[in-house]
Design brief:
CATH superfamily: Glutaredoxin
CATH class: Alpha Beta
Structural class: alpha+beta
Strand order of the largest sheet: 2-1-3-4
Strand content: 15-25%
Number of domains: 1
Number of strands: 4
CATH topology: Glutaredoxin
Helix content: 10-25%
CATH architecture: 3-Layer(aba) Sandwich
Number of helices: 2
Order of helices and strands: EHEEEH
Mean pLDDT: 91
Low-confidence stretches: none
C-alpha cells in the first residue's frame, strides 16, 4: 500500500500572550486543524491526504499557516472557511489556492 498523495501540516504553535512574533494558535489554528480533519472525514480522504499539526512553520505574522507537500505550498491567514476550497482546488485537483499564498505565487511542477 502506498502512502497519501499529499500531506498537510497545520501550525499550532503557541506562544505567551503579547509575544512579539504572535502565534498561529492565537490566530485560530485549532479551528483550522479541526476543519481539515472534519473535511477529510466528510470526503473519506484518509488514503489520499494526511493531516497533522506541526510546530512553527516560520512566518508567524501570517498565521495560521498551512504547508502542503509534496508541492511545498505555504498558505497563510487560513481560516476554517478556507479549508473546503483548499481540498477542492489543491488537495483533489492539484491547483494551489493562490489568494492564500501570502503574495507568493506557488511554483508547482506539472510533471
Amino acid at each position: 500500500m502506498s502512502g497519501p498523495q499529499r500531506r498537510v501540516f497545520v501550525c499550532t504553535q503557541q506562544r505567551p500572550a503579547l509575544h512579539p512574533r504572535g502565534s498561529c494558535a492565537a490566530s485560530g489554528a485549532t479551528a483550522v486543524l479541526q476543519a481539515f480533519w472534519a473535511e477529510q472525514q466528510r470526503r473519506q480522504a484518509y488514503d489520499a491526504v494526511a493531516i497533522t499539526y506541526s510546530g512553527c512553520l516560520g512566518p508567524c505574522e501570517g498565521g495560521p499557516n498551512v504547508l502542503v507537500y509534496p508541492e511545498a505550498v505555504l498558505y497563510q491567514k487560513v481560516t476554517a472557511a478556507d479549508v473546503a476550497e483548499i481540498f477542492d482546488s489543491h488537495l483533489e485537483r492539484g491547483n494551489p489556492v493562490e489568494r492564500l499564498c501570502g503574495g507568493v505565487k506557488p511554483q508547482v511542477d506539472a510533471a
